[in-house]
Every structure is written in C-alpha cells, then in structure tokens.
Amino acid sequence: MSFHSWRNLGRSGKDRFLCLEGSYHGETVGAMAVTDVALFKDAYAPLIRSATPLPAPDARKAQDGETAIDVARKAAAALEQYLGEHHEKIAALIVEPLIQCAAGMVMYDAEYLRLARAICDRHEVHLICDEIAVGCGRTGTFFAHEQAGIRPDFLCLSKGISGGYLPLSIVLSTDQVFAAFYDDAIARAFLHSHSYTGNALACRAALATLDIFREDHVLEKNRETAKWLAEGLTGFAEQPKVRHVRQCGMIAAFDVESDDPHFTRRFYREALSREVLLRPIGNTVYFMPPYVITRQECEFMMQRSGEALRAALQ
Ligand SMILES: Cc1ncc(COP(=O)(O)O)c(C=O)c1O
Predict the structure, then answer these.
(1) Where are the beta strands (DSSP E) in 55-164?
(2) What percentage of residues in the chain have a pLDDT greater than 70?
(3) DSSP label at 142?
C-alpha cells in the first residue's frame, strides 16, 4: 500500500523497504522481505526481494556508561545516513515499536521512534508501525508508539484487537495515503483483499474488545499487573547467570548466560513439570501473560519459573 500510494503520486522509484536488524513481521513473501530472522526466510530466499536491515536500537548494546537513549540516537543516526543517500528509492521504514518480540524481546527507548519519525518525514519516507504483538495495551499504553508521542503513516494490528477471540487484522493509514488512492481510475485503487476481509463477526468481536478496554479499565489494571511482574523479576536479577533483566509494561524478559546447547529445551521441561508453560527464545526467557492473570497466578508463575531456572542451570 505504501509503494502503490507513492506510485500514484508519480514516485514509482520508491520501491524498496527498510527494516531493523532482528525484525519479524510475518511469513508471507512480502512480510519475509522485511523480516531479518534467517530461520524463517532462508528456505524462501530465491523468492524474496529482501529489505535492507538497519542497526536496531537494542538497549543491550549500551557500553561504557551509555544509556538506552544513546543507543537509540546512534541507531537513528545510521537511519539518517542511509536515507540521506537512498531516500529516493525508499517507500517505507517498518518497525516493531519499543519491543522486537520475535528477536528475543529486544527492548529499546522511545527516542528511536521520535527520531525515526522526524527523519522519515524529512526524507519523504513512510513510517510503518507493526503493532501486531505490542499493540492493544501490551506496553502500558494502548499503542506502543504513543509513548514516543508520534503517529505512524501505517499501523498494523492483530492479535489483541479482538482479544484473541476471532481472527482479525487491520491496517490503518492516514488521510494523505487514502487520498492517494481516491480516484475514478481503477488502476489507482487499492484492490487487494482477502476472502474474509472486513469479516463482520470478527469486527464485532474487536468492537466488543474495545468496549471491555474502556469499561473494565484494562490499561489501568495492566499497570497494576506490570508491577507484580516487576516484583517477580527482582528475584531473577539476583541470579548469577541472569543478564539484561528488562520490562516494558506487560512483557518481562531476561537473558541467561549458558553454554548448554540444550538450555532452552531443558528450561522449558523444568518449567512445564512445575505447571508453567514458558517458551524461551534461545537463551531469552520472557513472560507475556494474558491481561486477566491474577496476582496469585503471577506470583505462582514467577516463583515456579525461578525454581525451574535453578534446576535447568544445574
Ligand atoms: C510484530 C509481528 N508482526 C507480524 C506478525 C505476524 O502476524 P500474522 O501471523 O498475522 O501474519 C507477528 C506474529 O507474531 C508479529 O509478532
């Protein structure tokens, strides 16, 4: 849609996309092109016109007294430099705001989004926020990008938008992009759709989900739940093999230093035998609980996970 809107504006040279290192945006051919995870795309490499991955603002890169904001500024400088040279060919930059989940809950400072927004504006490049994983209250605000005080040109939502009850995905855009397609000429129209596009039942489930967000004060409750997660995390921070303990709203994670190639599997089994279903990504352990988790369940999850970690490291 980004490419086509530029094309309608007479800018068909803008046919390339930018993503961040470690990005994950899904597994269709187009989505794999902006995904930087070899495991998902290697087999399909001949079919894919890969995007250029730029340095990610991963807060773990901070060295020698640097802060997450410094790392974000460095990554933004790399974006600025790249676009300075190539903006004529670039339709859009796609990002997962605040947390690159599939890369291993890689968290970064909102400063990157603020700067990326300004840089993209300067170079006439769309900013696409893929909030499929981090949208709908997961990070503390309804949309993660709100924490940077910006708006994207495109916003992708799914998962939480229907509370997980029915499958729905949405792409929102701006009036400016809409106007680029609004024409009597059919070739200028955005014709792409899917069999179940605009499914009425799924849309109704999404509307009901939004009602629940409002009526049950889900965002406020999540802030409370996030505090329980934070309390549970302190126990992990004290463990000698645990690194980079981090949290953003309803996602908590840490990395485990272990040479054991079977650590992930071992930890998964230890946790399962203690009635906790975890799915570490490599050596990154994370908690992304459903919003309805109770304090008691949260304490149970964190305590049993701690026991499982100690067992897995023995
Ligand atoms: C950030 C992000 N984008 C895209 C996707 C893929 O979404 P879908 O399976 O609906 O294509 C995911 C799935 O986990 C995701 O985390």
Answers:
(1) 90-95, 99-100, 106-107, 126-130, 154-157
(2) 100
(3) S
pLDDT for 276-288, tens place per residue? Answer: 999 999 999 999 9
Centroid of ligand 1 to alpha carbon of 132 (angstroms): 6
Cα(171) to centroid of ligand 1, in Å? 13
Provide the whole-model pTM. 0.97
- Residues 127, 48 contacting (CB under 8 angstroms): no
> What confidence tens digit (pLDDT) does each residue in 197-208 have?
899 999 999 999
Q: What is the pLDDT of residue 138?
A: 98
Exposure on the CB side of residue 162, measured as CA atoms within 13 A: 17
3-state helix, strand, coil in the chain (%, to 5): 45, 15, 40
* Alpha carbon distance, N-terminus to C-terminus of the chain: 51
DSSP state for residue 281 in the 8-state scheme: B
**In the structure, what pLDDT confidence band is assigned to residue 25 with cuts at 50, 70 and 90?**
very high
Smallest CA-to-CA distance from 207 within 145, 162, 268, 264 is with 162
Q: Residues with Cβ within 6 A of ligand 1? A: 24-26, 96, 101-102, 130, 132-133, 158, 169
Query: From the CA of 110, how far away is ligand 1's center (Å)?
Result: 21
Q: Which atom of ligand 1 is nearest to the CA of 159?
A: 10
Contact 133, 99 (CB under 8 A): yes
The total of other beta-carbon atoms located within 10 Å of residue 257's CB is 12
